[in-house]
Amino acid sequence: MTLFGYKLPALSSLILWALLWEFVGQAELTFFVPPFSEVLLTLFGMLPTPSFLNALATTAWAFSMGVFFALVIGIPVGILMGKSRIVDELLLPWVNIFISAPLTALVPVLMVLFGFGTRTVIITTSLFAIWIIILNARTGVKQINRSLVEMAHCFGASPLDAFFKVYFWAALPEILGGVRIGVIRAVKGVIIGQLLISIVGFGALFELYSSKFLMAEFWAVLVVLFGLAFTLSEFLAYLERKVAYYATTR
Amino acid sequence: MRHAVPADDIAVSVRNVSKTYGDVQALKDLTLDFPRGQLTSLLGPSGCGKTTLLKIIAGLLPANSGQILVNGQTVAGPGPDRAFVFQDFALLPWATVIRNVAFGLELRGLARSEREAIAEKYIREVGLAGFEQKYPHQLSGGMRQRVGLARALSVNAQVLLLDEPFSAVDEQTRRKFQEDLLELVKHEKKTFIFVTHSIEEAVYVSDQIAILLPRPSRVHEIIRPSNFRDKGVDNIRRDPEYLDIVDGIWASLRSYVE
Ligand SMILES: Nc1ncnc2c1ncn2[C@@H]1O[C@H](COP(=O)(O)OP(=O)(O)OP(=O)(O)O)[C@@H](O)[C@H]1O
Ligand SMILES: [Mg+2]
Fold it and tell me: CB under 8 Å to B196, separation ≥6 — which residues?
């Protein structure tokens, strides 16, 4: 974005929205929106407190485990679907159903199946993230140049070699795209899990602050969450740009 | 066949091979021998099954019937005795030139230092010294195909299969390639099987030219130019025999060009 010939740094539009937020807050239009400056002050006061750090650790743990399982299951399954017609026809309908299904509605079922603990939160998180990861890995493999596959075969690649030295790398641009979207969905999944299944971590904070109408605290946690998700997503976008040079020439 | 070659001098032998795709008969009862240490071109109109034949020899496609022998051994799949050069280069875009050239050796489990030493030798041989750490997208089409060629050479296969390797490079580069190919055939003592669309190219580089005709594909004629091969690269294109053969082939093929 440029303004009067100057190139504005990325995210400068956010400053505008922060100012608007501050203005609405100062005008005291609704208790629901305290001024942005007050939210920030609350945020910095809250950061070092044990209750916040514990919540952060709990949520981060469930989130990382959920993403981890989504990756180690999702990427190989997606690659296999792209490689094998049979696996693809077997699994694709399910992937398509789950990718568009309202997963939140499934949470009660998961609670019945897996209980009310962290385990169920992790499963929920994985379930939110995995489908797009599978689908993107599959797409990545599907568009591999046939002669690249023939080349590997011709020069004696074992199935394992072909998987790790050709298919994975050839599909990497799409895989990373899927991971980026999957991770954003996982944030949604972990918060829903910690709101509905076991009220711990950030979920517990949201629950607490909203039930007591502590709006500044509520928004502060939301800002932290947004910041973390945004940073993660930007990092993955950066990785994606690093492999983009070959995305067009495979 | 008009010019018989002793049996132990045949590197690759195609015996009564047939191949159908669904109900398209691509090859029908095709028999053809490839003399050791020579370059044989497969020449024919589009769709006559040249790529199909080459992939069957490579072991990438199964034949419906018939047999492929490489050094007297029946081919059941890809093997270290054959290497392929692809029309679209088939380079790993995320790997450097040296890794691409060494990829065949990497798949065979050679240690890194060992395979890179071999790769460097062939990178020099195809004229790409200094480009070892470049990526394919930083090279021109001609240079990319040199990488493909170096990769095929570095695994030291006795038989090189080339599917229209020069069709994606410009005309001047192509001529240079053809001259280099003649040198390579002379020095590498390998058997080259070379698919091309170009009559001039086939006559220029080949020891033996197999003319394939389509629907279903069969060997129409085998031509073995004799005279002009040793007259030096600069004189081949002016040689009367060269010109006669080019004209003769065009006469056989013209009715198949729609
Ligand atoms: N995978 C496939 N499925 C169905 N038909 C095929 C397939 N591959 C090739 N064919 C058909 O088989 C015949 C021979 O094809 P092939 O690619 O071997 O010809 P070619 O001589 O290499 O042609 P070109 O000169 O255009 O490269 C053609 O009629 C083609 O349409
Ligand atoms: Mg072809």
Answer: B41, B42, B43, B164, B166, B167, B202
Q: What is the mean pLDDT of chain B?
A: 85
Q: Which residues of A157-167 are buried (b: 16+ CB within 10 A; e: fewer)?
A: beeebbbebbb
We find that the CATH architecture of domain A56-249 is Orthogonal Bundle (1.10)
Task: Tell me if B83 and A154 make a contact (CB, 8 A cut-off).
Answer: yes
Within chain B, residue ranges assigned H as helices are 50-58, 97-101, 103-107, 112-125, 141-154, 171-188, 199-205, 233-236, 240-253
Q: How much is the average pLDDT of B73-101?
A: 90
Task: Report every protein residue that has its C-beta within 5 angstroms of ion ligand 2.
Answer: B 51
B93–A246 CB contact, under 8 Å: yes
pTM (2 d.p.) = 0.81
Select from B22, B16, B27, B2 the least CA-distant residue to B213.
B27
Q: What is the pLDDT of residues B161-172, one digit of tens each?
A: 999 888 877 888
What's the distance, Cα to Cα, between the start and end of chain A in Å?
32
Measured CA to CA, the distance from residue B123 to residue B184 in angstroms comes to: 14
AA letter at B145: Q
Is the link from the previous residue into B216 a cis peptide, with omega within 30 of 0? Answer: yes
B90 lines ligand 1 (CB under 6 A): no
From residue B113, alpha-carbon distances to A132, B122, B126 in Å are: 40, 15, 20
Question: A152: which chain B residues are within 8 Å (Cβ-Cβ)?
Answer: 107
The whole-angstrom separation of Cα A175 and Cα A107 is 27
Q: Which residues from chain B sit within 8 angstroms of residue A160, using beta carbons?
A: none
Nearest to A125 by CA among A140, A139, A114, A137: A114
Domains, chain B:
7-81+157-256 (3.40.50.300)
Rounded CA-CA distance B15/A202 in Å is: 72
Its ipTM equals: 0.85
User: Candidates B43, B50, B253: which one to mutate for ligand 1, based on the most atoms within 8 Å of Cβ?
Assistant: B50
What's the pLDDT tens digit per position in B212-249?
888 777 788 888 887 677 777 677 777 778 788 888 87
